[in-house]
């Protein structure tokens, strides 16, 4: 089941929440588990009566279908498409130019290699951060830790104070027990505007004539290690988007980094599309009034 949450400034008694007062919206996918077997169990169907309830139900259904479609096109199952392959080749050629002694082109100061942006964190999981009903660490604490590392990564990369924009859909793959060690790795996965355009045209500048703002996507990979047995399991991947007031770009070098870049580019396109759709819905729902909605995915 999907639980939608909206955080907004409290309206006056009897009044509705205004679009400009909305601070954040998010959706949680929850699974009902049998307390004895820990396996998923069916839940009662949701009854919708009003037009607003039907609209929200349809939105949740669309989100579910979109997740199923994304799973089919994941990079672990399919190769990059033709457009993405062209972009990878264009960036690879640009790297060759940077190192060619017969070519005057050199890497601008505002282009940073992806492998130099990584920062790491490791910490022991203390009992004060556990869930109330078991000895597993509370998911909100894990999100807090990944967000803070992502913020530090974006700040270290840009040398500015980043502004949080969104968190992509994330999944907790494995629980984190009390007493285990949590390892986090944050990497600048993608920047927008990108290095090169779809047709391969040059978009690299020296920073003085480029865009004033840059969207930076930070990927945080997490894993947990059992101290007694030494077993290591992935606990999830978290993708944060920040806005920074500087023209700076990230460039991958290895094939693995190119796959990270492609995956982040797809996420950035989905976030932009989702925000455009929400803006259209907001305007349609308000009778065509012009306005902006502050939304976090």
Please give the structural blueprint.
Blueprint: E1 2-8, E2 22-29, H1 51-72, H2 82-99, E3 111-113, E4 119-124, H3 139-158, E5 163-167, E6 181-192, E7 214-225, E8 232-244, E9 249-251, H4 255-285
Parallel strand pairs: 3-9
Antiparallel strand pairs: 1-2, 4-6, 5-8, 6-7, 7-8
Can you offer a commentary on this structure?
By secondary structure, the protein is an alpha+beta fold. 31% of the residues lie in helices and 23% in strands. It has four helices and nine strands. The strands form three sheets. The protein has a five-stranded antiparallel sheet with strand order 4-6-7-8-5. It has a two-stranded antiparallel sheet with strand order 1-2. A hairpin with a 6-residue loop joins β7 and β8 (232-244). The chain is globular and about 70 Å long. Mean pLDDT is 83; it is low at 284-297.
Helix content: 25-40%
Number of strands: 9
The number of helical runs is 4
- Describe the sheet with the most strands: 5 strands, antiparallel
Ends apart, CA distance between termini: 17 Å
Strand fraction equals 15-25%
Q: What is the H-and-E element order?
A: EEHHEEHEEEEEH
List keywords for this structure.
disordered C terminus; two-stranded antiparallel sheet; alpha+beta; globular; 9 strands; 297 residues
């Amino acid at each position: 089941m999907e639980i939608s949450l909206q955080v907004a400034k409290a309206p006056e008694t009897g009044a509705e929440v205004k679009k400009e007062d909305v601070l954040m919206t998010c959706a949680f996918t929850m699974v009902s588990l049998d307390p004895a077997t820990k396996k998923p169990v069916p839940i009662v169907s949701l009854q919708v009566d009003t037009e607003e309830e039907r609209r929200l139900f349809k939105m949740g259904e669309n989100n579910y279908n979109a997740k199923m479609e994304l799973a089919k096109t994941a990079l672990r199952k399919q190769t990059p498409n033709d457009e993405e392959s062209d972009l990878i080749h264009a960036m690879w050629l640009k790297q060759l130019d940077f190192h060619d002694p017969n070519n005057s082109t050199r890497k601008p100061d505002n282009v940073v290699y992806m492998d130099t942006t990584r920062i790491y964190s490791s910490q022991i999981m203390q009992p004060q951060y556990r869930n109330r009903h078991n000895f597993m660490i509370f998911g909100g604490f894990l999100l807090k830790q990944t967000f803070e590392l992502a913020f530090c990564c974006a700040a270290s990369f840009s040398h500015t104070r980043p502004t949080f924009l969104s968190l992509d859909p994330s999944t907790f793959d494995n629980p984190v027990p009390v007493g285990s060690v949590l390892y986090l790795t944050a990497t600048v996965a993608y920047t927008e505007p990108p290095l090169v355009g779809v047709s391969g045209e040059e978009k690299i500048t020296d920073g003085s004539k480029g865009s004033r703002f840059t969207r930076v996507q930070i990927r945080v990979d997490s894993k947990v290690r059992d101290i007694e047995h030494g077993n290591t399991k992935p606990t999830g991947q978290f993708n944060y988007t920040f806005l920074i007031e500087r023209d700076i770009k990230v460039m991958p070098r290895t094939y693995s980094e190119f796959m990270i870049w492609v995956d982040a580019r797809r996420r950035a396109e989905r976030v932009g599309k989702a925000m455009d759709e929400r803006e259209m819905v907001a305007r349609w729902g308000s009778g065509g009034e012009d306005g902006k909605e502050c939304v976090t995915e």
